[in-house]
Backbone:
């Protein structure tokens, strides 16, 4: 198999050999539930879906060049999505990789055309974010048409299926139409309703090797240097690694490193004017300040892992504690600017 092909579809872990074997023997599970870290399900579902639709797929890797593969990147007529129906704003509040974001730039995949998305009713303002039963009924109608080729139904947020939708879906899953593959993902099997779970082939998804994450990033247009760095920090999670390469994430990292350096220095005036001038700390929305602290904490973890020097470990650890406290304070509604001031003072106590 050509290297290029392996690289392109590298979010299917090497260790999923059971699924690969099943696919090559024509007994791929018709209802698959992947248990995978948040934010990691969609890239994997996309790669599996493309492999199931590609007539030249080998070992669960699509060829990448046939008409089906070419169609896939702009929304395939035999791929349907079951997505929760919420506004973008609401989606981001609940889940940073919400349905509005999953198909956008982070995975460099075009939003599926409206005809490929199952209509799931009107605007849902319920923060529990359930999939609407109407959408699932629409799905039954779409699948009733017979089709000689493989079809896929992607459910990247299976944990969001509510009772009514699950019941409607269950009717389809009890007797899945021929050559229809349900590809679902959830962060934990227990979060999916037992009725759906019991119909599914459960598959835990292990992390990828750092090299596979790196080549995945390169195949998505990330430059080699940035790919290597992000892969090393991603703990084998390609979705997280790709998110780390976004301009926003790179900016957040730059700012986090500035803050760490200020906390390690003694110049209170410089630190306080940095706090005062930071837009993310004065924003009404607390999330940018939390992201900044989380990024700084990640950076500290990495520095802690790569040093054996006692005084350095103690200094980094004290800094980590003061930042963890600031993060907690902000979640408890403290003003971000005040929490940062307190954290600087704490680091110098
Ligand atoms: Zn193909």
Residues:
């Amino acid at each position: 198999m050509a290297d290029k092909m392996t690289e392109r579809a590298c979010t299917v872990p090497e260790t999923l050999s059971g699924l690969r074997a099943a696919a090559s023997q024509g007994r791929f599970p018709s209802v698959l539930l992947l248990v995978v870290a948040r934010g990691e399900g969609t890239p994997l579902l996309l790669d599996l879906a493309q492999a199931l639709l590609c007539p030249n797929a080998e070992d669960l890797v699509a060829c990448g060049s046939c008409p089906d593969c070419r169609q896939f990147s702009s929304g395939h007529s035999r791929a349907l999505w079951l997505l929760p129906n919420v506004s973008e704003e609401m989606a981001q509040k609940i889940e940073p990789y919400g349905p509005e974001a999953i198909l956008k730039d982070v995975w460099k995949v075009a939003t599926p055309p409206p005809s490929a998305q199952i209509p799931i009713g009107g605007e849902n303002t319920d923060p529990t974010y359930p999939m609407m039963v109407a959408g699932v009924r629409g799905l039954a109608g779409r699948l009733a048409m017979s089709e000689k080729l493989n079809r896929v139904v992607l459910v990247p947020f299976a944990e969001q299926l509510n009772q009514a939708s699950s019941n409607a879906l269950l009717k389809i899953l009890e007797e899945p139409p021929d050559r229809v593959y349900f590809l679902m993902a959830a962060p934990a099997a227990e979060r999916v309703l037992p009725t759906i779970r019991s119909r599914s082939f459960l598959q835990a998804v292990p992390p990828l090797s750092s090299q596979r994450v790196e080549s995945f990033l390169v195949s998505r247009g990330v430059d080699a240097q940035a790919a290597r760095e992000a892969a090393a920090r991603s703990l084998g999670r390609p979705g997280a690694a790709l998110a780390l390469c976004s301009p926003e994430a790179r900016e957040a990292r730059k700012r986090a490193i500035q803050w760490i350096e200020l906390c390690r220095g003694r110049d209170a005036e410089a630190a306080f004017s940095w706090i005062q001038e930071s837009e993310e700390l004065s924003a009404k929305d607390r999330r940018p300040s939390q992201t900044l602290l989380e990024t700084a904490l990640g950076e500290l973890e990495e520095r802690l892992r790569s040093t054996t020097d006692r005084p350095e470990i103690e200094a980094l650890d004290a800094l980590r504690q003061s930042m963890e406290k600031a993060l907690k304070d902000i979640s408890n509604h403290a003003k971000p600017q005040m929490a940062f001031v307190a954290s600087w003072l704490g680091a110098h106590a």
User: Anything to note?
Assistant: Residues 140 and 172 are 7 Å apart (CA to CA). The radius of gyration is 23 Å. Residues 1-7, 86-132 have pLDDT under 50 and may be disordered.
